[in-house]
Amino acid sequence: MTRLQELSALGVGIAIDDFGIGFSSLAYLPRLPVDVVKLGGKFIECLDGDIQARLANEQITRAMIDLGDKLGITVTAKLVETPSQAARLRAFGCKAAQGWHFAKALPVDFFRE
């Protein structure tokens, strides 16, 4: 944790990837010098799923976005692949997202030109 605080003090932005999946813990979030939390794509995929899975994941996704806002942390939704997912996330107040809905991955040569 000390190393993260040192990096943050130097102006290095810190992001947690796949938050909400596996071992990432809400208990550590207020103590970490985190700028961005990337919400695991499994939550986003289910926004287009069957009604039962969708309702549960909508509640979790909304709660994570609200928590991020309250803590001053940007929540980035990962694996946004459809217009309906993007629209739902916007309606939930999500300000950052990434995925194929916005752009496919580009080869490195694209940036060399």
From TrEMBL:
Q: What InterPro entries does the entry give? A: Cyclic-di-GMP_PDE-like (IPR050706), EAL_dom (IPR001633), EAL_sf (IPR035919)
**All copies of domain EAL, residue ranges:** 1-113
Q: Name one GO molecular function term.
A: cyclic-guanylate-specific phosphodiesterase activity
Q: Which domain of life is it from?
A: Bacteria
Pfam families per UniProt: EAL (PF00563)
Q: What is this protein called?
A: Diguanylate cyclase/phosphodiesterase
The encoding gene: yjcC
